[in-house]
Amino acid sequence: MTKILITAAGSYGDVAPYTGLGARLRTAGHEVALATHDSYAALVRAAGLEFRRLPADPRTRHAATADTRDTRDTAQPERPSGPGGNRDLMRQAAAFIKELGSGLADAAREDTGLLLLSATTAPLGHHLAEARGIPFLDLPLVPGAPTGDFAPVVSGGRSLGRWGNRAAGRLSLRIIDRLYADATRELRARLGLPPATARTVRRRAEAAGRPVLHGFSEVLVPRPTDWRPGLDVVGNWWPWHAPDAQLPPVVEDFLAAGPPPVFIGFGSMAGGEGERLSTLVAAALRRAKVRGILQSGWAGLSAGHASADADLLTIGEVPHALLFPRMAAVVHHCGAGTAAAGVRAGVPTVPVPVTADQPFWAARLASLGVATAPIPFKELSGDRAVARLSQALTQATAAPARRGHARTAAHRLATEDGAAEVLKAVAHLTQTEHPAT
User: Fold this and answer.
1) Which of 136, 157, 274, 291 could form a disulfide with 363 if both were Cys (CB 3.0 to 4.6 A apart)?
2) What is the pLDDT of residue 404?
């Protein structure tokens, strides 16, 4: 038995997959704690894991921003425009990371035997592992190492050619190093470590050839041909839900009242735009002659914002594993976890990517034949927005070939067990780097 600390930070999609992975580790006999934000404490504890708090909760920050926002302005406040926009984003991200670093050191206790690190926490966790001599394993949910096979996931999904892809990948890593620079300096000083830049520590880990297990499926992203040994793609880790969990009665009643509906949700995206988006979505559903289930999310989608004759239901958090297989199609922002959940369910997707890695996953779904052409979120405005979304809904729900591709992909995904691969790696690490005494 090993005392394992998993660290994960960010939105629901950045955290929830580690609850399912943690539950599998606990079932295998390990003692597992998950350090993350207060917003996910209930989910962590429900999975049977110990909750440890990390600061910089993005949900709390989002609520504070929404309280002061003029919601008539439909521009995305998280994506400033103009020459200073990127600098503002960098400052915000660096401040988040700096606050996170102090909390990470508090979360790791003296008896921690193994650190499992998400992409966001790994550049901080490496210093913690160095200072305390704790074995660690990086478990990112997206590909991060440079490759010629595709451009960095945050670059929008367009290939720049093999040389350009690798160059952009290296540049992306240097930008990440800059984001972690202040946090690295402060954390190393607190831990009593000699000064070292974030880039230096990252390169040490790369040179050591340490294993990195990526929690996504080769169905969507085949392992790049030019990655070094040890960078492996093992399959998804799924959010935990109770084995006897069922959909709420109101959802079952809605499903029984008519043909399969379409799911619409934007997760942690589009904060403050609920009324506009709900009205737009309701109009598109009516034009496409399909019913809809709106997941409120951070946008605050609600059937209450739409006209009374819209055949809509509003829901809160519901396990996608239970809901998506009952849908005619799913419309979402294409975060890594939601994109995989749609493939797992075997239903077509209408991708509406907003930012970050979402255009990458949207393009992957479309190339796999399980999704319509992506509709960038910024295009869900103007006179043609309703028509464009309605057309995509019709394409997703009325094309047998697309549903066939989705079912084929789901069968392939069902053969994978990403958590089992982590269990094997944990067993190897604990035997070779931290043997029992």
Assistant:
1) 157
2) 94
